[in-house]
Amino acid sequence: MGRPGLNRRQLLAGTGGLTVAGSFGFAALGTGADALASGADTRVRYWNLFSGGDGYNMISMLDSFRAANPGIDVKDSTLQWGNPFYTKLAMAAAGNRAPDLGVMHMGRVTGFSPGRLLDAWDVGLLAKYGVREEDYNPALWNRGVIDGKLYALPLDIHVQLCFYRKDVLKKADLLGDDGRMIPVTSTTEWFDVLKKARKAQRKGLQTIGLWTNDQNFQWWFFVAFYTQLGGTWFDDTNTEVTFDTDKATEVLEFLRRHVTDGYVIPGAPTGEQFVNGAPFTWEGNWSVPVFSGAELDYGATPLPPVFGEQATHAESHAFVLPHQAGRGGAANEAAHRLAAHIVRHAQQWAAGGHIPAHTPTLSTDAYKKLEPQNEYVSAMDHQATEPKVWFAGSTGVLAQDLGPVVVSSTMGSAKPDAVARRMKSRLTTLLASKNPMDGRTAAQGGAVA
Fold first, then answer.
1. 235: CB partners within 8 A, 6+ apart
2. For residue 448, what are the contacts with CB-CB under 8 A and spacing of at least 6?
3. In terms of pTM, does the model score above 0.85?
């Protein structure tokens, strides 16, 4: 069957309503017929959103691939993180100007109209280059499967972590014999830990950095603890909201208490305070290079299972195949080969704090020696993810819609129980809304693996 067309208005609405200057930057991104690198007979155009330390690590991995595959010219382009990236990727796919390979956050794949703006992976070809389904955590692999086809090949998971200063916790008698933070299994135990840490910390610092007024972090923390309570979002058919307002209120009250009990200084720079001696901060694993570079004596563990079940918020970077009319041939095979190479050689990627998705990497001696990565690698088996619907995912509609209301509870401008009811109301509205990419609701989107 043919692919229904998507007009410019639909695409811009579906990716955040952002205007892209010029001819969407395609010429600058290497879609022209420029010359192949010396000795190469095939080109792979690859778009990603990695900057900073991630960008440096990705370049190193690409250079490794180039050295091992001189017949393939990799033309990589780095675009702005967030909706600007997704806008350009969507417009390129709709206009048959797409790169051979791209990167997306896994949570955004369902809403990116798989089968229209994304092409499915050839799992046989991936296996030829050493990447197989059995090399993955099943839950992570299946997040990329839609209507029985693989549309996203996971590179990593990146998680929210509880970073702690070993020097401060040692004074507070909060380290175990293994030199790591003592286990915490309830909210009572957690606030006891904070109380003891506050007595041992430097004056003028907060006890924990919690990003209290940041809608993304507050949303991520909410997802983690709501998952710990066994909370659900929708039924299996995505036709009914199953969001539990009592459980949501419990989570919101927990987050709020950090402020009311004085453990947080709202608006304080979380990372800077941690470097200067604050006992705790909750941050993404991408902060590992920063804290290690500051030569801190610290550890990092998944968010504490204060509600009994282990679960910490997780997202994933994943490789995708933006839609190309007549995809196939040497460039397509080279794209599979490049993605498989990076997935299989992700030790360098782990240096940025991310947990490699390729599980054989996690069992290597080199990975086991990484600190603090080896302390939180268990998060792979306890991922708290957003529901698999078109409006979810990093910088997606769900986070933009619900993140601010979580902040309003944490900061005290709204009561937790009222916020929980508001969240359920907004989830009901979103579930009935149509994806601007294809005009289908979540129930019509075919997101079941």
1. 242
2. 146, 147, 236
3. yes
